[in-house]
Amino acid sequence: MSDARPGHPALQVRALNKSFGTFKVLTDIDLSVDQSEMVFVLGPSGSGKSTMLRCCNRLEEPDSGEILVGGAPLTGSGVNLNAMRQRIGMVFQSFNLYPHLTALGNVTLALRRVQKLPRETAEAAAREALDRVGLADRAGHHPAQLSGGQQQRVAIARALALRPEVMLFDEPTSALDPELVGDVLAVMRDVKAQGMTMLVVSHEMKFARDAADRVIFMDGGRIVEQGTPEQVFGAPREARTRAFLGRLHG
Amino acid sequence: MDVFLDTFLNPAVLAKYAPAILEGAVVTVILSVLIVLSGIALGTALACLRAYRVRPVSALIVVYADILRALPPLVLILLFFFGLPNVGVTLSASLVLYVVLTLVLAAFAEEIVWAGITATPKGQWEAARSTGLGFTQALGHVVLPQAVRMVIPPLTNRAIAITKMTALGMVIGVPDILGQATTAQSFSANASPLTLAAAAYLVLFLPFVIASRWLEARFSGPGG
């Protein structure tokens, strides 16, 4: 099932530490995601999984540690953060589409302003990205005219259009009505099938079981356990993992 | 009743001074347009500058906005007009009125636009920055357009309130609507020119007041 390329890390996190004030959110996180691998991060709320994800494009600034994308440093002095961020797509729980722009405008903004593509080229790339998420016919719609699921798919297209090497998903379906979740997961599955490296924080256990190459369980700001979905869901080694999965399944 | 009509709506006086009031209206319109454009532009620029959160700069902007909002504009007009010549700067009455009201409107506009910027969800900044936009680009292309839309109703109300204050120019001899009307009133010893002035203000400002009501309904409704 796995298309991952072991030994070819797309994203590396080394000795990552992060505190909010006196509260230690992340402790010595080490993580490597191979090219085309989909890694799922599970854990109770407050376990630091979202903070860890947000450190991976420096929306949260790590206190210490090193992050590499495609072998290039994201942390440290002299890093061109805006250039690096184009190599890392981010999808948010609350979509965060720009409400004053159409779906097409949402996707073209960074193509035009950051990558400096001419309008026609940017719009062609944006239409292609919208087509990939099945929303080519909604290009002229504003976010308010789209369903939550459609908005999230536009947000995925916005990230995809920049042709990132890694995509980060921060609870991409948590804000959606249950009947809209499937469309977004189908798009994510499709993005993975085309070889994207993906780091996903989500509570969609069934999807994790079906689609993930690796599952990571976090608790108390540490990686407690990791393995294939079969290992982690079928035979968790750690008591904390068993307790968490037990609570989820009632 | 005749006394009333003769005092406020004397046909001969109205006819005689209507051209002067009309000239005054042109001055009022030109001043108002210039004040609104430059006041809102300056206020928006200050609000954007404040968004960079450079502490000394933000502090200066806050002090400026607070002082200019606290002082009665007439005090500033008199200070500028009668005070500045003593230090060798002589501005025409119209220029003093323009500068003072622009600065006052900018102070209010800065606070209003700043409120819009801070009310824009943090996720909008994050989405923009995550695609590689720099701070200035995120502000200019994502946050400011939303902030300005959000604050159009209060901004319109404030712009109307400040431009009405062009009438204060009368005190230093600006030949605007009220300036012309008071001159005419003292020459004619009759209040009809003031009636005409009131009518002129209504014609100029009532459409904007109605428009602001419409904007308020349109932008503050559900899903605005």
From TrEMBL, chain A:
| GO CC term, one of those recorded | plasma membrane
* Keywords tagged on the record: Amino-acid transport, ATP-binding, Cell membrane, Membrane, Nucleotide-binding, Transport
**Tagged with keyword Secreted:** no
Cellular compartment(s): Cell membrane
* Bilayer disposition of the protein: Peripheral membrane protein
InterPro entries, sorted: AAA+_ATPase, ABC_ATPase_HisP-typ, ABC_transporter-like_ATP-bd, ABC_transporter-like_CS, MetN_ABC_transporter-like, P-loop_NTPase
Its main subcellular localisation, reduced to a broad class, is: membrane
GO MF annotations, alphabetized: ABC-type amino acid transporter activity; ATP binding; ATP hydrolysis activity
Keyword Mitochondrion carried by entry: no
Which parts of the sequence belong to the ABC transporter domain? 11-245
- Report the sequence similarity comment from the record: Belongs to the ABC transporter superfamily.
Q: What is this protein called?
A: ABC transporter
Q: Which organism is it from?
A: Roseivivax isoporae LMG 25204
From TrEMBL, chain B:
Q: Which UniProt keywords apply?
A: Amino-acid transport, Cell membrane, Membrane, Transmembrane, Transmembrane helix, Transport
Main subcellular location of this protein, as a coarse class: membrane
Which stretches make up the ABC transmembrane type-1 domain?
Answer: 25-215
Query: What GO terms are given for molecular function?
Result: transmembrane transporter activity
Matching entries from Gene3D superfamilies are given as: MetI-like (1.10.3720.10)
- The source's superkingdom equals Bacteria
Q: Which residues form a coiled coil?
A: none
Give TM regions.
20-49, 61-83, 95-117, 194-215
Q: What Gene Ontology terms for biological process does this UniProt record contain?
A: amino acid transport
Q: Quote the subcellular location field of this record.
A: Cell inner membrane; Cell membrane
Membrane topology designation: Multi-pass membrane protein
| GO cellular component terms given for this protein | ATP-binding cassette (ABC) transporter complex
| Family label | Belongs to the binding-protein-dependent transport system permease family. HisMQ subfamily.
Q: NCBIfam families from the xrefs?
A: HEQRo_perm_3TM
Identify this protein by name: Polar amino acid ABC transporter permease
The species is Roseivivax isoporae LMG 25204
Its lineage reads: Bacteria, Pseudomonadati, Pseudomonadota, Alphaproteobacteria, Rhodobacterales
